Each structure stands twice: as structure tokens, then as C-alpha cells.
Amino acid sequence: MALTRDEVLHVATLARLSLLPAEIELFTRQLNDILAYVEKLQELDTEGVQPLAHVILVFNVFRQDAVTACLDRDTALSNAPAKEDGAFLVPRII
Questions:
Q1: Cβ neighbourhood burial of 83 (10 Å; 0-12, 13-18, 19+)
Q2: Which of 9, 49, 68, 81 is the most exposed place for a label (fewest CB within 10 A)?
Q3: What is d(CA 83, CA 77) in angstroms, rounded to the nearest whole number?
Q4: How far is residue 35's CA from residue 62's CA, in Å, rounded to a whole number?
């Protein structure tokens, strides 16, 4: 399935691209090369091959969601530049 010059111009119009005549010819050749390669890939026997999203296994690594002791108030406030009544004291922002 080869793309024509008019089809490339139509796609360029849909993408709101203005192409020079040399670019039209270049993109027509390049897109036809890509389509030829995809047609060649269609010849492969992929029966029994599972579809992949990634070539290698990808999985999330999560830590255990375990309840642990938290900091006590005095330790949490020990490095605070300003504190008042057991809380961080910050500048007022309006």
C-alpha cells in the first residue's frame, strides 16, 4: 500500500503543516518506506506470541504498608526555626 503525494498533502493539511515541495517528496518516500517495512513485518508468524507492552518485565516495587511508630512532637519540632504551643510557627500569608 503506497501513499500518493495527494494523501501526504491531505495528512499534512489535517496536521496543519505547511510543507515545501521538497518536503512533500521526502515525506512521501519516507512514509512509503515505513509502510513497506510494516508490510514486511506482517509476514512474520506470530501465532502463540503474547502481545507485549515492554520488552522486559516491568513491575512496581512497593514497600510493605506497615504501621510504625511516628515521631513524637518534641522530636518533630526540635529543628523548627519557630514554634508555638506545640506547632510549627510560620509567617502569616494572606
A1: middle
A2: 68
A3: 7
A4: 42
**Grid cell of 64 as nine digits:** 510493605
**Exposure string over 27-45, b if 16+ CB within 10 A, otherwise e:** bbeeeeeeeeeeeeeeeee
The answer to whether 32 touches 2, Cβ cutoff 8 Å, is: yes
Close Cβ partners of 58 (under 8 Å, ≥ 6 residues apart): none
Provide the residue count of the chain: 94
Segment-wise mean pLDDT, segments of 10 residues, the chain, 94 residues: 92 95 95 95 89 84 88 91 92 88
